[in-house]
Amino acid sequence: xxxxxSIVKDEEGNEQALFICPGCGGGHAPxxxxxxxxxxxxxxDLVKPTFTPSILVKGHLGEVKGIDKYGICHSFVTDGxxxxxxxxxxxxxxKTVDIKPI
Length: 102
Hints:
Elements: E1 6-9, E2 15-20, E3 27-28, E4 31-33, E5 41-42, E6 51-52, E7 55-64, E8 67-78, E9 81-84, E10 96-98
Antiparallel strand pairs: 1-2, 2-3, 2-4, 5-6, 7-8, 8-9, 9-10
């Protein structure tokens, strides 16, 4: 199976787990190691990741076909699936989908 997570470091050396959100069309990257930043629990599985607690992104959600998207993306990521909560402002609100390979 292909990896759906890419581990990246910010300029301070904190680690983030980057994945592409099919609801927003952009990347979400919760911190998984670091100091001075909120850190999510992560099962260290790059193929079937789980993060705790939920991931909430408000504001700029990314760019799709050259157009900036704004709104709310709120989800649980469990065993490589994204369960979008009903407060999402995109078309996948209330649905569960697989994370696609990065």
